[in-house]
Here is the input.
Amino acid sequence: MLILDILYYIFIVVACFQVGYYLVFFSQFAFQKETKPEPNNIPISVLICAKNEADNLKDFLPSIIAQNYPNFEIVLINDASYDYTLDVMEDFANKHPNIKIVNVRNNEAFWANKKYALTLGIKAAKNNHLLFTDADCKPISKNWISQMSAHFNNDKTIVLGYGGYTKIKKSFLNKLIRFETLLTAMQYLSFAKMGMPYMGVGRNLAYTKDDFFKASGFMKHMHIRSGDDDLFINQIATAKNTSVCVAKDSFTISNPKTTFKEWVTQKKRHITTAHHYKPVHKILLALFYASQLLFWLSGIVLLAFLFYWEVILIFFALRLISQLIIVWFTAKKLDEQDLMLFIPLLEFFLVIFQLTIFISNLVSKPKHWK
Here is the structure.
């Protein structure tokens, strides 16, 4: 059949492309040794923007306060919360003199815009070197600030870190969320290692105040509700000014979504920002996802019809081996090795969910900063 012939050649091309993508791009992070610069103890401002995060702040803020670092302040930004977030912040501030509160009220021009709140927090920070995390994030060690700040120097003014999620036993959704996080980290950290940084995650990210104001802050994409982390880094990051920190003491960890509905809503919001990346980044990321989708769909159809099934299985195996080698070394660095046994299943579900979310975004607008 002509259609199966076409699918066969498509499958061969995308399988080779996938193998090449893993071995050329993703190997950049997987096989490189982590540099361990000496701590420099520069003054750091840790910024946490919170909207209705009272309970999370009570649980996670003590891990920030307890950091083993000689010179840091904590800037707590209350983004027009309507719960008792501000009360919790004030209670901590009364006990710890290095905590500063920025209380943001809704502005008519920037209604419920996290970027506006963050901008006010950055202006209020007394130090040039800024370290960002979220109200529901917890550093896994007391050396988080020390590890991240050590990567700052005269040339490196952006530091990309890793933010993982808590492991929940016997939860497929938890594994899916952590696999998607692992794959995303493998992408943005590999590209950064290649000198093509394109994003960071607000759960664990650092840059300088000078860079922020030199770029006019978030003004280029202030109209886009999300993207205070990835869009800003996509705008300002270069091969010369960006460093990667994946020392295990530098990781942060968050509680993941516990229902598919919550997770899909979150991913719908995140995916919309990718449309605003630089063209070269959009092309490379789109090619990878499209090749993933075509690999699975064409491969399954061809196997269903037993069309050159021996060749199809050989290419499936070749691609799987390449993937497992690269992902294993990446997962080992990011402490996600328990996902390895489930990778084919997790990838298939993730590809289908991403397609579903993409289609859903075409017909409905995603929700933004709560």
